[in-house]
Amino acid sequence: MDKDFDQRFFQSLRAQGLNVPAPQPLLGGRSNLVWRAGDLVIKLYLRRVENPLFDNDPTREFAALEALSGTGMVPSAHRRGEFEGRHWLTYGHITGKPWQENPAQVAQLLGRLHDQPVFKKLPKGRNGSMALKAQTRDILDFCSSQFEQVAELNSLCPRSHVAPTKQECLIHGDPVPGNLVAHDGTLTLIDWQCPQHGDPAEDLALFLSPAMQFLYRGVVLSEEEETSFLQAYPDPQVTERYQDLKPWFHWRMASYALWRCQAGEARDHVAYDLEKAALVQSIRPSSA
Q1: Which structural domains are found in the chain, ordered by start?
Q2: How confident is the model at residue 288 (pLDDT cuts 50, 70, 90)?
């Protein structure tokens, strides 16, 4: 985007009666443009680029903010619309910082989220090892220019079989540290572009991912922090299922990190190495 586009966009919002004084860019997300303007956050969705793991759906995001209004788990929904073919929405700004510490608090938040009613028109998430295997194969197909790494990851494909769960629920789909705002002793989830009706173990895996922790927090979780998270999650059946699927989740995320490496960012290569190491560690007992 250029400054001329930004000015036209903000003028359009003001013409619709929105108070957007001196919008300031916010850092964080990798998919869209975000500003703060007074008490509002303005999000402008970029034109969709195919992403093999994370959707970028403005309709689902606004629906999630509305459905979870009053729970304290989401910002307050405000307005939405389109400008020159791009979707936008506004929601209440939360003064806080991206999550850094206390994994148990995140586990408790996700436990509350997974107990919320599922709202309409949510897509089904991937459920069970066969579905994760198919999805990961699709991701690796996007990495055809990295033949050696793809071959290595294919050789590390887990061999366990984990059946689909019937315990599907509302999941965030991207609960990484950058999407958790710590404020006033609590946490709020933002960036609801890819919620699903799916396996709750999915959210646990995304939060615990070494690649995602490194990219959004700068450091992976320690063994003690991971244990604290899993012990604090309220449903032991879900944490047990996560443990069973752990190699599959690492395999998928390593493949996604490899796809991100094609953009050439050094930190994506570090994220790939971290996730691949976790994958090797997770399958070592079964391959011994």
Answers
A1: 23-96 (3.30.200.20), 98-287 (3.90.1200.10)
A2: very low
Tell whether pTM > 0.85.
yes
The confidence score (pLDDT) of residue 213 equals 98
Q: 233, 107 in Cβ contact below 8 A?
A: yes
Q: Are 197 and 125 in contact (CB under 8 A)?
A: yes
C-alpha closest to that of 194 among 283, 101, 125: 125
The rounded distance, in Å, linking the Cα atoms of 214 and 136 is: 21
pLDDT digits (tens, 9 = 90+) for 99-147: 999 999 999 999 999 999 999 999 999 999 999 999 999 999 999 889 9
- Which tokens sit at 30? 């990798």
pLDDT exceeds 90 at position 1: no
| Residue 2: pLDDT over 70 | yes
C-alpha 178/C-alpha 169 separation (Å) is 23
Contacts of 256 (CB under 8 A, 6+ apart): 52, 53, 139, 211
Helices and strands counted in the chain (H then E): 10, 10
Largest Cα separation within the chain, whole Å, is 66
**75 in Cβ contact with 42 (< 8 Å):** no
Crossing angle of the two packed helices 236-261 and 266-287, in degrees rounded to 10 = 130
